[in-house]
Amino acid sequence: MELTYYYCYSPNLYQFLREKGQRFICTGLNENTHKKFWQYARTPELDRLLDVWQAQKPTR
Known about the structure:
By secondary structure, the chain is of the alpha+beta class.
């Protein structure tokens, strides 16, 4: 089974995932944009939480 990753660039999403008990693998800076990211292992629980986040995220 190949492990895939999810890279989160949103501090708000990071906080949401943290409150839901998700732990990131590592954090870093994008070498082109210098924007901070958090790396997560892609799991069914993470995918479920991302769906919840997307459904309740305000639209612009």
